[in-house]
Design brief:
Structural class: alpha/beta
Shape: globular
Largest sheet: 6 strands, mixed
CATH class: Alpha Beta
Radius of gyration: 16 Å
Order of helices and strands: HEHHEEHHEHEHHEH
Helix content: 40-55%
Strand order of the largest sheet: 3-2-1-4-5-6
CATH architecture: 3-Layer(aba) Sandwich
């Protein structure tokens, strides 16, 4: 009960924007758990910035019916360690997209802890529910390098999002430099991507992409964003 009350307090602090027509409302959810060192975290943040300023992403956004998308960026680690880093912004041109990318790049790391993917999905679902962009395709985009090992039930969080018509997609980072004691966490039986397929993604058209190097994260995220925006 205490955890639910704490999460409710976090949700209550979310700033809800005025309703505006967009093609897709997308919460980018970044893993900042302890298996990701500072160098890898920087590569991940640089990758987000590179993807969000890629001309192909802007072309996809402006090619939609409403020529706009709503974006928010959230970081998560362990139970109750979920934080909105960049709140909702409607992006429709190079200036608004670049501003969002710059604010994301400048923000400090939120946590270093365990991996509570269920908490992150529940938090993102509530952001999408409270924002209520009319008619928008709603997507949660979870990027991570390991399995769930903390917090609320991942299956319940994923299923609740899917039941609300929200798509939960995944981008797995195969972390070959994770400490040996974390190997089972970052390399589960069958591989992390298969684990994400079985446990994380859900909802209409859900999919997972895999990247084998933090340095290649930006290009993989660009491809993922193009698929998510095009689906709208």
């Amino acid at each position: 009960m205490l955890r639910r009350e704490l999460l409710a307090g976090l949700f209550a602090a979310v700033t809800v924007p005025a309703k505006e027509a967009v093609d897709v409302a997308l919460v980018l959810v970044g893993d900042v758990s302890r298996s990701i060192d500072e160098g890898e975290y920087k590569l991940q943040k640089d990758g987000y910035a590179a993807a969000l300023t890629d001309p192909r992403v802007l072309a996809a956004i402006t090619g939609g019916q409403f020529q706009a998308a709503a974006l928010a960026y959230v970081e998560f680690a362990g139970a109750e360690e979920v934080r909105t880093v960049v709140d909702w912004a409607v992006v429709r041109d190079a200036a608004t997209l670049g501003d969002f990318a710059a604010r994301l790049a400048a923000a400090p790391r939120s946590y270093v802890g365990h991996t509570a993917i269920g908490d992150a999905i529940s938090f993102a679902r509530m952001k999408l529910t409270e924002a209520s962009f009319p008619g928008a395709r709603r997507v949660i985009d979870v990027c991570g390098d390991g399995t769930n090992n903390s917090g609320e039930s991942l299956a319940e969080a994923r299923d609740a999002a899917a039941a609300a018509g929200i798509t939960v997609n995944g981008l797995t980072i195969i972390n070959e430099h994770a400490p040996a004691f974390m190997w089972a966490h970052t390399h589960p039986p069958g591989g992390l991507t298969k684990w994400y397929e079985d446990n994380v993604i859900g909802g209409p058209g859900a999919f997972v992409l895999e990247v084998h190097d933090f340095a290649a994260f930006g290009e993989a995220l660009t491809r993922k964003l193009l698929q998510e925006i095009a689906a709208a």
